[in-house]
Amino acid sequence: MRKIALLVLSMFMLFSYLLFAQEPQGYIEYKENKKLVRVWGTHYERGYAQGYLLCDEITDVFCTYFVGYLFNNNAYLYGLTRANFEQNFVVDNKYITEGNGLLDGMVAGGQTLYNYVLERDIDVTDLMMCNSIVDFTDDKALFANNKLCSSITSWGTSTINAPELLGESIITRFLDWIPHKSLTDNHIILISFPSEPDEQNWISFTFPGLFGCLSAINENGVGSFYNVGNNNSYNPQDSFEPIFLSIRNGIEVVDYDSSGQCNPMDVVQAVSDDVQRSGSIMNVIAATEKDSFALVIECNNINGVAVRTKSDNTVITGDNLAVTNHFRKLYAPVYCYRYDNIVDSLDQSTFIDPNRSWSLLAGAAGISTNIQTIQYIPSTGEILWSARTGSVPAYQLAPTYFTTDELFEYVSADHPIPEQEGALLIKEIYPYPAKEFVNVSYYSKCAEYISSTVYDVKGRKTTQQRLQAHAGNNEFTLRFSDNMSSGIYFIRIDDNTFSTTTKMLVVR
Fold it and tell me: For residue 168, what are the contacts with CB-CB under 8 A and spacing of at least 6?
């Protein structure tokens, strides 16, 4: 009798935990081999979801790459850099809150925060340092050769004869970085849905734990892509803001400069409002019907911020802007073979379509350390993304196709996907919470077959089946596999045209 009572009590405690404990406001899904991480809510809630969903990956990036590779597992060197950071850097409270949420999520996800090199738990300052990696350029040999990223933006006369563009803007961007395994194993697209009223949805091509903006696009179509600059002189008496977080302010806040519209000038203002320590170059782009749709921001602590547009081009022909890692306006230009190669290619022809934008940059500036290649067309929201996983540079790999419309879709208990309502819609699941099975009632506008897939919150597929359907109301029973444990899951149904997803609680 006592055993039965204990079993009932333990089941009640488990049910109460699953029902009332903080759930991660996010989930993982995959397209081809690309990992998409959707999170929503406040800064704390979005941080918590990242920590919970990516607890193992964040540990890998921080411990193996950041502490292990960049600091050579040297606790003394790390301590000196941390002391410098604590003395000289300031971070917005909202990012501190998000970082604390991330740490709490990691613990809830079952990951220890203890680092054996530092001989302590990692804390929010460690996370902020990791998000400030490019702000310590004079401390690390990583940036010694300044071969870190290149991009080309084209529009107007250069793209007017391309049927895919018809004069609209396009950017192709190479992220060139040391191809450390902890990075190449952990590419993600982080898709953020803020609940703060002054913030907007945005996506970031990044790595677990790095929630600043290295390569990012917001829901209004503004994209910002970061390059390391070649002059990092600074005044040591200044108080610095991490550049990735400054860029995020300009991307995430709906109208950062209060101009009445969301455009690249928001990023200019956000970077200008903070004091930067390192040299940085940002290629910022939006659709051509918006003001200031293509520009380059050059930033250095001593000389401040300069904006480079087509009118500042002295050697590039056509409607194009090119970026490598050397200032061209803030400081007198110095020789860069990649930049000169881009110039030479455009001298041959200024015509740019998506294929040539990719191939021109590959031929002119492609290097062996390229770990991500991104192409973005703001007017259509089309994105191509290739991510290195082995020894082949990313620009030589077949990219995955996305659109901003699909990336900015998500589902939570209170947020259905509006584009799918009326075409394919899950109406009810019961019994709830589920135990061994669940009945799924749904509406299909015109389907002969649907596929049903169940994922856990970390994007792992647990069951899948194909079912016959008809136009109108349908219902099927989904029986769970034996290896499904208690927790939160997502049911996704797809009719090859539309898909819809809902969340369910399983108590085994």
Answer: 155, 159, 287, 288, 377, 378, 379, 380
Residues near 359 by beta carbon (within 8 Å), at least 6 away in sequence? none
Q: Residue ranges per domain, the chain?
A: 26-130, 142-200+219-407, 418-506
Name 72's bridge partners: none
Six token digits for residue 249: 């302010």
Alpha helices in 155-242 (DSSP H): 181-184
Predicted TM-score of the model (pTM): 0.83
Summarised one tens digit per residue, pLDDT across range 385-422 is 999 999 999 999 999 999 998 899 865 544 444 344 45
pLDDT band at 13 (very low <50, low <70, confident <90, very high): very low
d(CA 489, CA 487): 7
Give the chain's length: 508
pLDDT digits (tens, 9 = 90+) for 172-184: 999 999 899 999 9
Residues 344-378 as b/e (b if ≥16 CB within 10 A, e otherwise) read ebbeeebebbbebbbebbbebbbeebbbbbbbbbb
Task: Tell how many helices (H) and how many strands (E) occur in the chain.
Answer: 12, 24
* pLDDT band per the 50, 70, 90 thresholds, residue 171: very high
| CATH domain 418-506 topology | Immunoglobulin-like (2.60.40)
Task: Please tell me the number of Cα atoms within 13 Å of 37 on its side-chain side.
Answer: 26
Which class in CATH covers the domain with range 142-200+219-407? alpha beta
Please state, as a whole number, how many other Cβ atoms lie within 10 Å of the Cβ of residue 291.
10
**Cross-strand partners of 468:** 449
What secondary structure letter does DSSP report for 61?
A: I
